[in-house]
Amino acid sequence: MRKIILVTLVMLFLATGSAYAYPISVGDSVVLTKTTVGGGYYDANHTWYGGGDFGVSLASDHSTTLFTTFCVEYDVHMALNTSYKVSNISDTVLDANRKLSDGTKWLYWNFDKGNLEAASGNQYDYTVAGVRALQEAIWVLEGFGADVTLSGLSKNLYDLGVKNADNGADYAVMVMNLEDVNGKDKQSQLVAAPVPEPATMVLLGSGLVGLAFYRRKMKK
């Protein structure tokens, strides 16, 4: 009987774990596209040459945008509408062997969930200027301060990231490491897990209670 209970509880945790799954998986082929806002950097001919935000789609279905993301690195490049393989999803930028900063996690989580405007005291909004400022703040939080000069909104967003870094560690934000067809590392991007649905949280709570009860029974 105890074995049956234990197996049931393990299955509960496996079921709840899937609720935290990211919108893409290791091994997926994805493409990055310019969003309707597309805050990045443009030359005199209005040709994009870097910086987010980007829409992420599976290479097999360009019409469906799974989520919107930003660059993690300043000095690594990629191309829009080009298929890349997701080589790794973790809290580490692989080609630099560097952990993602908690300040970046806090900023991107609030952006992804639509909370950044309120969290920034209505300083940020989803415009070209807004997403460009957010990209610049992320770059500096990731150690590229020598390449990017912050001012105005980008400096304010950076300061918010630093101020709230202690909370950033609690958020399910990871690095989506990409590689090209030759296995060469390309620009890493941010990805956040979806917020669990209320029913999933109830299921998780039930599993925790069940485990506590089972452990208590085992001690008797």
Short characterization:
The protein is an alpha+beta fold and 220 residues long. The chain contains 7 helices and 10 strands. Strand 7 and strand 8 form a beta hairpin.
Oligomeric state of this protein: single chain
* Poorly predicted runs of 5 or more residues: 5-10, 12-18, 197-204
Output mean pLDDT: 83
Strand segment count: 10
- Tell me the β content: 15-25%
> Helix coverage percent of residues?
25-40%
Number of helical stretches of at least 4 residues: 7
Query: Which sheet architecture does the biggest sheet show?
Result: 6 strands, antiparallel
- By helix and strand content, what is the structural category? alpha+beta
Defining traits:
alpha+beta, 7 helices, 20% strand, two-stranded antiparallel ribbon, 2 domains, globular, 220 residues, 10 strands, six-stranded antiparallel β-sheet
Q: How would you describe the overall organization of this protein?
A:
30% of the residues are buried. Helix 2 (102-112) packs antiparallel against helix 4. This protein has two domains: 1-21 and 195-220; 23-193, no CATH class. With 220 residues, it is α+β, with helices and mostly antiparallel strands. It has helices at 2-17, 102-112, 116-119, 128-141, 152-163, 165-168, 198-219; strands spanning 29-34, 41-42, 48-50, 54-58, 67-69, 84-90, 92-93, 98-99, 173-179, 185-192. A hairpin with a 5-residue loop joins strand 9 (173-179) and strand 10.
